[in-house]
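Dear colleagues,

For the upcoming journal club I promised to circulate an example of a predicted protein-ligand complex. I picked one with flavin-adenine dinucleotide because it came up in last month's discussion. The inputs are reproduced below in full, followed by the predicted structure.
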Amino acid sequence: MGLISHPMTYVRAQSIQEAIDVLSQLPDVARVLSGGQSLIPLMKLGLAIPEAIVDISGIGELDYVHERHDDMLEIGALARHSRLERDPIVRRRLPLLSKVARLVGDPQVRSLGTLGGSLAHADPAGDYCMLAIMLDGVVLTNEREVPATEFFEGPFTTSLGPGEMVIGVRFPATAYPHAFLKITRLPFDSGVPSVAVQRLGEGWRVGLTNVGHDRARARAVEEALETGATSAAAVSVPWLELQSFPDEVVPASYRMHMAQVLTGRALDEAQGGGR
Ligand SMILES: Cc1cc2nc3c(=O)[nH]c(=O)nc-3n(C[C@H](O)[C@H](O)[C@H](O)COP(=O)(O)OP(=O)(O)OC[C@H]3O[C@@H](n4cnc5c(N)ncnc54)[C@H](O)[C@@H]3O)c2cc1C
């Protein structure tokens, strides 16, 4: 991978306000830097050439996990994967999130990469993007609270405006049955779906990565389960929108097959009948 050779302004912000001030002064040219696990590789490849970097990685007030009321968990943008994996509140109140964090990338990615950076990056392979959509998460910015379904506008595209940054995210807290399955042959098998299932209220939520952000929730499978279908029957319903997601590396037919297999297994595991 190449070197970053273009000149740029670098500001290491000490507070949220300072970061926002700089972003507002340089609305079209500044990029936020959190863990750098996605942005730095893009810069090395010359795919991102920001004129200014606002490094927020040292802003302690963005690294938090709070219980909100009885049923919500609010997590700061700078909570790193390694914290989400181990944090006792996350493990108790939303164990699915901790299981997802445990399988993100490799130890370096987990110790540097952040929840807010993952959401802002909006990678169709991003596990937290999927969780935020399937659980009706709410993304908190310095300007507003945005339902995840409106925050993500497409692959690598969000509704963040100039001068706006992710401050945190709110998830429903639930320790009901759940499972998360992904193929971990490579640290980031970016073409193949990972699958999360979570019992929430009376129903099931089913989420997948690598199917496009607007389709990260498999509603057809959820609805089949609601009518009493077994997991095998539920994953057999037509949910073929997957086919329309372009991917030159991994054929759609293989991705669809894996989505079906992994979803069935995840449901079996969560329902107690699985492997
Ligand atoms: C080898 C490897 C394996 C990986 N495996 C996985 C995996 O299995 N699952 C997974 O989900 N992810 C995976 N990732 C991605 C990883 O989770 C990154 O940490 C994440 O995508 C970006 O987080 P970051 O904090 O590093 O953000 P950065 O790289 O710092 O930023 C990413 C983008 O978000 C913007 N940004 C960052 N923070 C904010 C903010 N607070 N507000 C607004 N914009 C912001 C930046 O400007 C940039 O455009 C992997 C990455 C690598 C390199």
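Two points we might discuss: The longest helix spans residues 252-270. Residues 31-39, 41, 77, 104-106, 109, 113-114, 116-118, 120-121, 123, 126-128, 160, 165-166, 187-188 surround flavin-adenine dinucleotide (CB under 6 Å).

See you all on Thursday,
B. R.
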